[in-house]
Amino acid sequence: xxxxxxxxxxxxxxxxxxxxxxxxxxxxxxxxxxxxxxxxxxxxxxxxxxxxxxxxxxxxxxxxxxxxxxxxxxxxxxxxxxxxxxxxxxxxxxxxxxxxxxxxxxxxxxxxxxxxxxxxxxxxxxxxxxxxxxxxxxxxxxxxxxxxxxxxxx
Length: 154
Known about the structure:
The chain has 154 residues and is an alpha+beta fold. The protein folds into 2 domains: 63 residues, no CATH class; 69 residues, no CATH class. Helix content is 33%, strand content 21%. The chain has 5 helices and 9 strands. The strands form 3 sheets. Strands 7-6-9-8 form a 4-stranded antiparallel beta sheet. A 3-stranded antiparallel beta sheet has the order 1-2-4, with helices on one face. Strand 8 and strand 9 form a beta hairpin. The radius of gyration is 26 Å and the shape is elongated. 14% of the residues are buried.
C-alpha cells in the first residue's frame, strides 16, 4: 500500500494492488465537490490528486464546529486585534495612531527597542483593562483609549 502526503489530506490509501480504489480522507475544513463530502474513492492516483487540488473549504456543520473551536484557541490574538493603539505623549500633548507612527515621526524620543518595550507594556495592560503610563527618557506615554475606561484627555 502506497501513501501520499498533502496539506489537505488526512489519510491516503492506495488499494489498487488488491483490486481496490485510491481512498482519500480530507482534513477538517476541506471537502470534495459536494458539501460535507470529506472522503472519496478514485480509480487512480491522478484522479484522486485532481480531486484534492479542486477541493474547497467546507462549511458543513461538522467543519464549522471545528473552526469555531480552533478560532477560540487564541483568545489573546483576538484581544490584540481589537485593541485601540492610539498613543499620546503627555508632555508633548501629541497623539499618534500607534507607537510605531510616533517613533517614525519622532525618532529622537526613543530607540526602536524602547519603542518595542513601550508597546509591550501598554498593550499588555490595556488588554487587562488598565491604563498604564510608561516613562521613557523623561517622557510619559499612554494609550488614549482603553476599553472600559474614559478616554485620556490631552
